[in-house]
Amino acid sequence: MDSMRLRFAPSPTGALHIGGARTALFNWLLARHNDGVLLLRIEDTDRERSTPENVQQILDALSWLELDFDEGPVLQTQRGERHREVLQALLDGGHAYRSKATAEDVAAYKRLYGAERGFRGEPEADGAVRLRVPEGETTVVHDLVRGDTSFQHVHQDDPVIARADGSVLYNFAVAIDDLDARITHVLRGEDHLSNTPKQLLVLRAARSLGIAAEHPEPVYAHLPLLHGPDGKKLSKRHGAASVQELRDAGFLPAAVRNYLALLGWGAGDDATFLSTDELVERFTLERVSRNPARFDQVKLRWLDGLHIRSLSVAQLSDRVLELLRLTDAPAAVAAAADRALLEGAVAISQEKIQTLADFWPLARFFFVGVTADASARERWLGDEGLATVAAAREALAAVERFDLPGVSTALEALVQSRAVKPREVYQPLRVAVSGTTVSPGIFETIELLGREETLRRIDAALAG
Questions:
Q1: What's the domain count of the chain?
Q2: pLDDT band of 239, cuts 50, 70, 90
Q3: What pTM did the predictor assign?
Q4: What distance in Å separates the CA atoms of residue 328 and residue 367, rounded to the nearest whole number?
Q5: Are 39 and 72 in contact (CB under 8 A)?
């Protein structure tokens, strides 16, 4: 039996959106699960919106997601000669005809024969090319997710498959490209279901003329739509809408793959944290749902936090630097200047962050000095707070071994001696050494700063 052959075929009319990314992932998982072949085809027949910049955006998004392809990328526009060759064969074979019929002509036809009657044109010497839909038949789409869907030909217009200048349209190009590439399985969004009977008619007309007749028709699987948490169609109002936005927001590729895989597919045992190897091992079409899936960025953040905590400190430090280099060059320079400090800050922040982007706001004071937060200073460094900080300075200066046990013992003793709640000591001290009320644990923060830098920052706070 020939190997399974799949394709991911985005249109470069903008950034790769989350729904497209899930389609790419499902194709990739099915191909890898079955030792199949995955082709990347760029469907750039939209002359106005398909740009080289948009093509590069798609390639960059797939690269960041770490989805690799066995063949391609193939640009659909580079296959123009082949498309024209098959188009002419369909014209010569009587499966297609030229027509100058306009939208008004089609509307008039339906007023005459009924709105449910598919338009049938009269062959003319020139004009756009329409595919002749066979009379009195039904095209059944056998879908591995949705089951069988029947399309009666009497209701289908003869579809336009090429413009008057001979340049072919989407449904024709897709069908011929799938046929030539020997695609065995087509996984795509549910919104493409209505295109499938048109593409099957093109395929069958071509194969009846002996064009790639030895290759069977692809098997189709249309994936459920993606909705936001409110049940409405996923859009920018629900958070990040594209892969690049997820990347820039600090999500890990592995977490995004994990989460997208669970949108419309289930592992079978309610597992949520799955490595990519586990996804490949478990993925089958039998577990793809027909029901719309809900993309919830809050859940993605939670899952991303789990993946962050599964990394080593060195791995997470590398990921943090990658994001900073992408989004904040000065911060990247500061963080990269002292690798030991970076890994120390990452180690004590790892349990507190859910995305890579959470790290710098939490830990920047280690690298660039005390943050100027007037409200934090006003709240915690009044006369009483400064007196507490002065007492903390005295306690820390006397610590024999300036490590986590030494620091925590000294500060806990201070809390007890002053008979106050811990935050009455720790918050003023936190503001003195970081400038803000939010940081990693205060003991870990003090230890990482070290005795000299901690006392220097406290003295600066006391000096006002």
A1: 2
A2: low
A3: 0.92
A4: 14
A5: yes
Shared domain for 464 and 380, answered yes or no, is yes
Q: Residues, the chain, total?
A: 464
pLDDT band at 1 (very low <50, low <70, confident <90, very high): very low
CA 77, 81, 82 angle in degrees (round to 5)? 95
Q: Let me know whether 353 and 377 are in one domain.
A: no
Q: Does 384 share its domain with 444?
A: yes
Catalytic status, residue 236? yes
Q: What would the mean pLDDT of 169-195 be, rounded to a whole number? A: 95
User: Is 156 inside a domain boundary?
Assistant: no
Name which of 227, 223, 464, 444 is nearest 349 in CA terms: 444
Range of the domain at 336: 312-357
Residue 438 sits in the same domain as residue 458: yes
By C-alpha distance, which of 79, 44, 47, 84 is closest to 166?
A: 84
Question: Residue 213: pLDDT band by 50, 70, 90 thresholds?
Answer: confident
How much is the pLDDT for 279? Answer: 97
Q: Are residues 379 and 349 in the same domain?
A: no
Is residue 36 in a domain?
Answer: no
Distance in angstroms between the alpha carbons of the first and the last residue of the chain: 78
Regarding whether 420 and 342 lie in a shared domain, the answer is no
The closest of 374, 353, 378, 373 to 363, measured between CA atoms, is: 353
Q: Is residue 230 part of a domain?
A: no
In a domain, 199, yes or no: no
Give the pLDDT confidence score for residue 236 in this predicted structure. 57
Mutual orientation of helices 442-463 and 339-349 as an angle, nearest 10°? 110
Catalytic residue, chosen from 100, 233, 236, 421, is 236
Handedness of CA 88, 90, 91, 96 (dihedral sign): negative
Do the beta carbons of residue 360 and residue 328 sit within 8 Å?
A: yes
Let me know: does 87 contact 96? Beta carbons within 8 Å. yes
Q: What is the pLDDT of residues 358-390, one digit of tens each?
A: 999 999 999 999 998 999 999 999 999 999 999
pLDDT on residue 74 = 95
* Together in a domain, 452 and 423: yes
Q: In this model, does residue 47 exceed pLDDT 80?
A: no
Distance CA 328, CA 102 (A): 54
